[in-house]
């Protein structure tokens, strides 16, 4: 059983390696028109085998051109430069890395982060200080983000369902009426009666 | 940590398929050449170049004791057009530097006509580099190995850095580029066919197709 599995894995590896190598061989064969086809076939194969590829390969427009699918090689089929826009709303200059594919003319833009994030700076400062510094846990914000995304949990939905029945609504109403009668001794209610 | 949290954590860190990276043809696992005694190399760079460069902030760049550049566009232009011997130091371990930008750097060095020694710097080096050279936003530092640079320093670094190896790029590099992106002009008037024939580029092809 295990040998069968090993064999199939071996086949899968060689199969994928062949496809991947073909993509990289194309630039030297001067056949950029085929690259989209080969890239798609490779990606479909990884999907079929349910494999997780590293982000450097999978990221759109990064390693391969998003339109024609050719492997980016600087000074051969790609021109690269950084654009700096000083006219930004916030006043800070926005820098974007641009890859221009010379095969199809597609421009891919990647915004670059200019200044270090506050978290990182704080961390570095804290590490420099030898004494103990109390901090709020940093993961709180991240958790909050998750909560916002997951607004509609099963528990909440069940709660809602329960509260929307007729009997529960009636009970709520009667409770609120009771409260009103209790609070009739307020100054305002006296004034109203007068 | 609850069982659910552990499961979630495991789901976030899925195993990446390795054979694609281990491929010797594309050599993606060794995109960055290995540096032996990396800390020593980094200390050497700091001592010989970075420690002194802070004092030159007010001096014009062409009067600096070395030919160095830190701007991305400048480096790319240099590697594309010139042929010289250079060191390219890159802070590829720091999270602040864009991974997309870094991905092309080794390929750029390999494709360049310059003799590039690509040196990866240890983690945390970006901060030091930016403190000495505020313009180094992308964590790149190019040093030209000319007479201005101490030959001992050059030799020390060169012996400690491996060479770039991309078998799939060898056949691409030593071959003229085949992509024709030539900006030409075509006369607006249709009747001037004779004038067109005197041009050599596109019009010649058209004449052949007609025949």
UniProtKB/TrEMBL annotation, chain A:
Protein name: Uncharacterized protein
Chain positions covered by the region annotation Disordered: 144-194
Organism, scientific name: Zygotorulaspora mrakii
Residue ranges, compositional bias (Basic residues): 148-163
GO annotations of cellular component type: nucleolar ribonuclease P complex
InterPro entries assigned: Rpr2/Snm1/Rpp21
GO BP terms, alphabetized: tRNA processing
From TrEMBL, chain B:
Example of a GO cellular component annotation carried by this entry: ribonuclease MRP complex
Pfam families per the UniProt record, alphabetical: RNase_P_pop3 (PF08228)
Protein name in UniProt: Uncharacterized protein
Alphabetized GO MF terms: ribonuclease MRP activity; ribonuclease P activity
Record region (Disordered): 191-211
InterPro entries assigned to the protein according to its UniProt record, in alphabetical order: RNase_P_Pop3
Biased composition annotated in UniProt, kind: Basic and acidic residues: 196-211
Species in which this protein is naturally found: Zygotorulaspora mrakii (Zygosaccharomyces mrakii)
GO-annotated biological processes: intronic box C/D snoRNA processing; rRNA processing; tRNA processing
Segments forming a coiled coil: none
